[in-house]
Amino acid sequence: MLGLGSDGLHTNGYSLARKLIFEVEGLTVEDFVEALGCTVGEELLRPHRSYAGPVLSLMKQVTVKGIAHITGGGMSDNIPRILPEGTSAHIRLESWPVSPIFRLLERIGRIEAKELFRTFNMGVGMVLVLDSQEAEQARRILEREGERVYRVGEIAVGERDVCFA
User: Which of 3, 101, 104, 156 has CA 20 to 30 A from 41's CA?
Assistant: First the structure.
């Protein structure tokens, strides 16, 4: 499984993010947050990325067996939708950098990892499933298209769920 990097919150988790940032932490849109490298407003207004161009280009060159857009429900809810019966996704948590906004929200809200991964994309906006023999070629193609690509895990025998390790 290859993960494509996100540019922040994308379109999910804004209600919780606003509550934590503005009500709990007391920040304003004009406040510069060192960990983010920008103001709160700039971070929250980052546009949602479209992966369509790079993924369509990839699909002309390799066989993509599954695509999961990591939106509301995070990896936990979105990846099982593309898994065939009798399989599960095994995700390696240290295989990509978690975006600073999620670390900030985790700290402010003291949110457990399981809930973070159910609410937010955590730095991976899309997951692609390919044959392992095509993964390196796919990574190179996507990087040429300007994507940040991470080998985030594998598909194994299981119960149509996601396991994090």
Answer: 3
Evaluate if pTM is beyond 0.70. Answer: yes
Q: Which two tokens stand for residue 98?
A: 């978690």
Write the CATH number of the domain with boundaries 2-12+48-164.
Answer: 3.90.650.10
Q: In what order do the strands lie in the sheet with 153-157?
A: 153-157, 87-91, 162-164
pLDDT band at 113 (very low <50, low <70, confident <90, very high): confident
- Cα–Cα separations (whole angstroms), residue 112 to 8, 40, 109, 139, 154: 19, 23, 9, 31, 24
Residue ranges covered by each domain of the chain: 2-12+48-164
The vertex-45 CA angle with 149 and 6, nearest 5°, equals 10
